[in-house]
Amino acid sequence: MKKLIAATVLFALNTSSFAATSGTLLLQGIVAQKVSVAVTPVAVASALDLSTTQADLKVGSVNVQSNSKSGYKLTITSANMGKLKRTDGAEVFAYTLKYGGSAVGLSTASGTVFTDSSASIINVNKDLNVSYTGVAAETMIEGTYQDTLTLNIAAN
After folding, report:
1. Hey, which end of the chain has fewer CB within 10 Å, N or C?
2. Does some domain include residue 107?
3. What does the angle CA 87 – CA 88 – CA 89 come to, to the nearest 5 degrees?
């Protein structure tokens, strides 16, 4: 029995002599990529007076958020290539658009792309403004004229 106790004590002493004198711990967290766009219309956007000429009339505001390390690209397109089209006909009414003071080309299906390549936190608000030359009602066919703008955002 004494030999068994002595062997157990000796084993315990030997295993503690193999214990490490230092160690490491990896701490790690993950931040998910976020790119988003939110469009807030102004009431006048759905009730434009087409008989009155407008210059840089605010029709909405856009909030862009991005934490992408490669930045983002925002694409603005128009369903009717930059024209208000009569909903039950073929007649059109031309207008121009600005995003944050910069002209937006809408005459092609690809629209206009705005790019920010910075690796920074972005949370900006920019206005959408339209301009057009008013046309007297008696020179246009009655009806509702409309266009749908689409804003898409993606990381670079």
Report:
1. N
2. yes
3. 100
Rounded Cα gap, residues 80 and 129, in angstroms: 17
Q: Which two tokens stand for residue 140?
A: 């246009």
Distances (CA, A) of 17 to 3, 8, 71, 97, 100: 21, 15, 54, 77, 70
Range of the domain at 120: 35-155
- Report the phi/psi class of residue 102: left, alpha or beta, with left for phi > 0 and alpha for psi in -120 to 50: beta
pLDDT tens across the length of the chain (156 residues): 555 554 554 455 555 557 889 999 999 999 999 999 999 999 999 999 999 999 999 999 999 999 999 999 999 999 999 999 999 999 999 999 999 999 999 999 999 999 999 999 999 999 999 999 999 999 999 999 999 999 999 999
In a domain, 12, yes or no: no
pTM, to two decimals: 0.83
Structural contact between residues 147 and 82, judged by C-beta atoms closer than 8 angstroms: yes
